[in-house]
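Two folds, back to back.
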Amino acid sequence: MITVAHPERRYFALQDQTTAVTWIRTSPIADLYVALGDPADAGGWTIRAYWKPLVSWIWGGALVMAFGGMVSLSDRRWRVRCRHEVAACSGANLGGGLIFSMRRLIYLVPVILFMALAGYFALALRPNYDSA
């Protein structure tokens, strides 16, 4: 892999603070992080490079787990019990169907929250590919 990295050191005079901006190269095999360190005595700079294999596969594992959760919620035992509860509650109690749907919703809430958080973090933490 031959590429040009652009890590930076930024100085903010108002806070009298220096920060490092890390350059990130993402691929399906691994991530490469390059950070510009402190200036060396000989006039150069210290560079820190980190090679992290299979980092992007973490997201794939999360998607597989979410898919497994959705498959487990489609189990036949849920549908059979649904028919029995609706048949038992269908004349005497008009709210039986609503109670069942609320019970089912309780099991779906963690899956929905997980999917929402995964989507949020996928958008908020995506790498910046600006080459400026």
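---
second:
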Amino acid sequence: MPVRDSYRPGEVCWVDLSSRNRTTAAKFYGAVFGWAHDALPSGGGPPYGFFARNGHSIGGLGELSPEMQAAGVPPTWNLYVRVDDVAATLDRAVALGGGVAVPCMDAMGAGWLGFLTDPDGATLALWQPSTHQGAALRDEPGTLCWLELNTRDTARARAFYGPLFGWTFQDMGVGGKPYTVLQVGNTGIGGMMQIQPEWGDVPAHWLPYFGAVDCDDTAAVVRASGGRVVTGPMDISPEHGRFVILADAQGAVFACHQPAASTVEQPAADAAPEPAAAAAGSAPKPRKKSPTRTKAARRPARKPARKPAKKAAKKAAKKAGKKAPKKAARKPAKKKTTKSARRK
């Protein structure tokens, strides 16, 4: 169990949901991922609580204020990057061509947070820890495993995020499309790809990926719980697994990644995880991001899917006097290609 008690600067340490209704959101994600929800004393501030899995916190759950809901602000997932100084990082973001969505603020003694916008308009949160370090559990089914930036200008994104967080970039191809892995040191933490023209008027956005045992099963539970499937489920490549992009019952968009069976072995400490690229030329259409003012894989193998055996060849006409061929031999089962994140 990959339990975490600290994060390096530049790593994504936390994820939380800004919902319209915490009670219904907790019920939805409890059904989909088995998460428990622990409400925290608000101290007069916005209502907030933790999502937990196996007794470990994995993310947060907040609620949009009545004013934000009246203004049409949609529910959204927020990704938090661990930094040493939120205020200084926000200043640096502005100098690099970005903006400030939420200035540095104290999160009830747990740490400090802020929200920035990059030059293309994507929103990302910052976290400077005090007593709360971040998610205690990551990189397994039902927890954050990848993040992905979809942007219209990848070169400009590199020029912004590289100096800001010290990220480095590794270009590769996934599913026949260009893809860039975001790295802290030699460790892959997420990915980046160019928004394609066929996606339509999609704004730049960060997308969180949660680990899944089976993307198809997860999609079915999402539908049954009142959510919807945005893209997929579909294969990325034989090496990178399978993914699906989903929306919860209130409209917040997130993704799931199921690793390829051949990539389940524990990676070396500095090995990059598999990127969950939206490889099919389709992406969610998130509306403007809204901050929740907050405190802030080893993924199991997908069971190989067996192809159905070919049906026995039809019997030749008896009048032709030919013997009917025997049933075709069963082909060996082929492993279903199966993927990060998120986008955050």
